[in-house]
Amino acid sequence: MCFHTTWCTGKPTMAMMTLAYVSEARPGLSLKDLKQILRRARENNYRRGVSGYLVFDGLCFAQILEAEAGVIEALMPVIEADDRHQRLRLLLRESIGERHFAETCMGCANLAAPVHLDTSELRGLIRDVTGSRQLCLPEALEFFRLFATFRTPEQAALLTL
Ligand SMILES: Cc1cc2nc3c(=O)[nH]c(=O)nc-3n(C[C@H](O)[C@H](O)[C@H](O)COP(=O)(O)O)c2cc1C
After folding, report:
1. Rounded average pLDDT per 10-residue block, the chain, 161 residues
2. With CB atoms 3.0 to 4.6 Å apart as the test, which of 18, 94, 110, 127 could cross-link to 66 if both were Cys?
3. Which candidate, 103, 83, 86, 67, places its Cα nearest to that of 21?
4. Which sequence spans correspond to the domains of the chain?
5. What does the pLDDT read at residue 128?
6. How many Å is the Cα radius of gyration of the chain?
7. How big is the CA angle at 29 (ends 36 and 34), to the nearest 5 degrees?
8. How many CB atoms lie within 10 A of CB 96?
9. Where are the alpha helices (DSSP H) in 62-136?
10. Which atom of ligand 1 has the smallest separation from the CA of 61?
11. Separation CA 42–CA 104 (nearest Å)
């Protein structure tokens, strides 16, 4: 799906915002749970004009969201209250002039997928940011792009739901 055309109609854009967080997945969260989260997220985000990227490493989530500020403000408490994760910690909250993940209503990398590919380095990355300070926008973009771009199409097919 591509929303670029609907989002680039030439109409003046509302104030855009991006927000990123890390959280701990509910113990025992299954692939089925992850798929349900992603399916609902993609449906809702498509309707609401939310783009972004979600990473799951088997224990933790990291997610970046971008949308009109009001949409993010309304969505975030819903996500935070979701009992499929806990201990959510904000990494980034900033106004943006343009989207950086415009091609997806929620891309996803599942690093816990059973693949013949060493994802340990990528998995360690989430631990690195979990206990650290907040990130500035370039740092956050670099972090999420690492997951979104490090892969060949074959690897992407395995890692992505
Ligand atoms: C890690 C995580 C990420 C989520 N991301 C989104 C999201 O991007 N968009 C969304 O609408 N819901 C997201 N959800 C699901 C929401 O918490 C909530 O279940 C959902 O928005 C409810 O949608 P509904 O009112 O249509 O049933 C996420 C949940 C989790 C645990």
Report:
1. 44 81 94 92 95 92 96 97 96 95 85 66 75 84 82 56 57
2. 18
3. 86
4. 15-159
5. 77
6. 15
7. 25
8. 15
9. 69-80, 120-130
10. 1
11. 9
Query: For position 28, what pLDDT does the model report?
Result: 92
63 touches ligand 1 (CB under 6 Å): yes
Kind and range of the H or E element at 22? strand 16-25
Burial class (CB in 10 A: 0-12, 13-18, 19+), 154: exposed
Please tell me the distance from the alpha carbon of residue 31 to that of residue 37, in angstroms, as a whole number.
10
Q: Whose CA is nearest to atom 27 of ligand 1?
A: 40
The pick from 79, 105, 108 for probing ligand 1's pocket by mutation, whose C-beta has the most ligand atoms within 8 angstroms, reads 79
Q: Cβ(95)–Cβ(42) under 8 Å?
A: no
Q: Is 29 helix (H, G, I), strand (E, B) or coil?
A: coil
| CATH of region 15-159 | 3.30.70.100
Neighbours of 102 (CB within 10 A): 15
At 87 the pLDDT is 94
Q: Rounded to an integer, what is the distance from CA 14 to the centroid of its chain?
A: 21
Contact (Cβ atoms closer than 8 angstroms) between residue 161 and residue 109: no
Residues linked to residue 18 through DSSP beta bridges, in sequence order: 66, 94
Residue pointed to by tokens 């939310």: 50
